[in-house]
Amino acid sequence: MPSLREARKQRIRNLIVEKALELFTEKGxxxxxxxxxxxxxxxxxxxFYAYYPARRDLMREFLARVNAVxxxxxxxxxxxxxxxxxxxxRAGRLPEILAWLESRAALWPAFRPYLDxxxxxxxADDEVxxxxxxxxxxxxxxxxxxxxxxxxxxxxxxHLRGTLAYEQLxxxxxxxxxxxxxxxxDQALEVLANSWHHLLCHEG
Length: 204
Description:
Layout: H1 4-27, H2 34-40, H3 45-51, H4 55-70, E1 73-74, E2 80-81, H5 83-91, H6 94-105, H7 108-122, H8 126-150, H9 158-178, H10 185-201
Antiparallel strand pairs: 1-2
Helix pairs in contact: 1-2, 4-7, 4-8, 5-8, 6-10, 7-8, 7-9, 8-9, 9-10
């Protein structure tokens, strides 16, 4: 059980992250100052830097929160992985692909705001860009691993197939969290599931 001191530190950390997300979303990454985040969190600039020595450290925390929402655990080589995603691709059944996509779609409101800020930050910070690109490759690696376990397709096409599938999902999730006039979500997810099934699972 965490001590009172540890619990207090976690509360402060959570408040800083929450207020930073609100301000970045409202004003933009570059336009938001550390002082503004500290004031909104009811703390000081010094306290902010004690938790996050640089903005990119805060972005690492944002990405950690994305992984927590998506239940992406650390793999044996310290990169994030989703066992469920690997298994869905390995099994290669359309209903299971659709069910997995629907389960992720239900979480879009919880994690897409973090990713939107990360994408904006990546445009201004090479280290954040590298961090985000590494995470993207970790997700693609899960798709590739599923195809490998199934012995499916020419292995030289695995990364390309995984990349295309990732970009499709990212595109759809961006539409649904930032634009409200898109076609019905269920229809969009069915189209996406069929595309994934063709790209990742269906030979012939």
